[in-house]
Amino acid sequence: MTQAYPLIIDGMSVSTDNHLxxxxxxxxxxxxxxxxxxxxxxxxxxxxxxxxxxxxxATPDADRKAAVNALADILDANAGELAELITREQGKTLSGxxxxxxxxxAAAWTRYTAxxxxxxxxxxxxxxxxxxxxxxxxxxxxSITPWNFPVMIAIWHIMPALRAGxxxxxxxxxxxxxxxxxxxELMQQALPxxxxxxxxxxxxxxxxxxxxxxxxxxxxxxxxxxxKHVMASASDSLKRLTLELGGNDAAIVLPDVDLDxxxxxxxxxxxxxxxxxxxxxxxxxxxxxxxDELCDRLLDYARNVKTGDGMSPDSQxxxxxxxxxxxxxxxLVEAAKASGARVLCGGAPIEGDGLFYPVTLLADVKExxxxxxEEQFGPALPIIRYTDLDDAVARANDNPNGLGGSVWSSDTDxxxxxxxxxxxxxAWINNHAMVRPDAPFGGVKQSGIGVEFGKLGLAEFTTVQxxxx
Length: 469
Ligand code: NDP
Description:
Elements: E1 3-4, E2 7-9, E3 12-14, E4 19-24, E5 29-35, H1 39-58, H2 61-77, H3 79-90, H4 99-115, E6 121-126, E7 129-137, E8 140-144, H5 150-163, E9 167-171, H6 178-187, E10 196-198, H7 205-210, E11 217-221, H8 224-234, E12 240-244, E13 249-253, H9 259-271, E14 281-287, H10 288-303, H11 323-338, E15 342-345, E16 360-365, H12 370-373, E17 380-386, H13 389-397, E18 404-408, H14 412-419, E19 426-429, E20 448-449, H15 454-459, E21 462-468
Parallel strand pairs: 1-5, 8-9, 8-11, 9-10, 11-12, 13-14, 13-18, 14-17, 16-17, 18-19
Antiparallel strand pairs: 2-3, 4-5, 6-7, 7-21, 12-20, 15-16
Helix pairs in contact: 2-4, 3-4, 3-6, 4-5, 9-10
This protein binds NADPH dihydro-nicotinamide-adenine-dinucleotide phosphate.
NADPH dihydro-nicotinamide-adenine-dinucleotide phosphate binds near residues 148, 221, 233 and 278.
């Protein structure tokens, strides 16, 4: 029988009368049942978080640190079960850069966040007086997570919120709710009731969250379009926001790049998680003098990457996560082909029941094609030719997104100088999307508001109080 999962409210597993099918994108079949939570369930979860807040906020810092570390232990102890749930609902591979890797990252991020401190800062402390800046928790934080890294992104939202003394209600994506629900259920062992709650369902819960009068902050990862809706409805009660939204990251490859070491990193910078990563390479700008050689080398590399069922150890890439995204990638590639793009490999779905789309490299593409101008969020990479570096930088910046970017060159100083001209929140040299728990990560322009990770990320889950004495 297909297993039905509960909501987690006030420390308890709560069954619902109705359920939603959760589809395994590798075979199109229902593999689990998601509880169909309603806005009344959301109200109960928010009320539980509200009740739990004063006690959790007043818990000694060392105890909260210990609790967050205990959550990392729970992730480690249950990594096998959670990784398998991710692969079944998300479609990514279990091994390689897949769900086991996601679980390892989630535990490491949790431990790093547990160790962070936001001590009192003394602005003045002398015979004339003392002015001290305190960081206080905000209250009830709602987390709305996407379907590309269901556990990792949940951890990015939950852990700094809890570490800083907030209580949390998380709502996972309706496409991938199961690993999150199970994780939150397991985590109840280490937390007082109501500190961490999880709701899921079909009752427009997202909208109900962003307009809920008793939620103090929303942390949302997803599309720019939905991020704007969150921001609009959050304005009623002036909720605090962290929005990590879409990206259309450009990588600029200079003629002096060391191709031997760059090809593999460029490939995975674009195709990790099948390109379903906010900060993946989505536009690859390559200098004319090395354009053909780099296309050939990427093609050689791509030929050895196997797309298949995520449960199989032979697969290096799994499925596109959902039908909507699958159709979008298909449409963008078809439109590019119709406008003259040259397909180096892939270019059409793999026949069968699963949402398998092969690695697709598109040459002779340019701005004006939707696959360049818009975020494709899938396994199709447009490779764009440039001759003048300033022109390439201008074209890279001529986009409403500003999440990540990268510059590839043997001359690191020159690469850093170019990177500093990119309009993006994170830029990498000879690498891409290498996020880390101690380095703030966030978007400029329409890629978001605020940052995650590190002390600055933790501070986003606090309000400032200055006491003048
Ligand atoms: P969205 O970004 O549109 O987010 C959908 C989620 O937002 C659901 O949980 C939904 O909840 C919630 N939601 C919808 N409306 C509101 C609202 N007004 N207030 C609060 N929450 C709301 O995801 P999609 O799956 O539709 O993906 C669309 C695109 O987003 C992709 O093509 C991709 O480009 C991008 N994306 C970016 C990601 C990233 O990491 N930055 C991750 C995933 C996707 P409910 O179901 O209750 O309505």
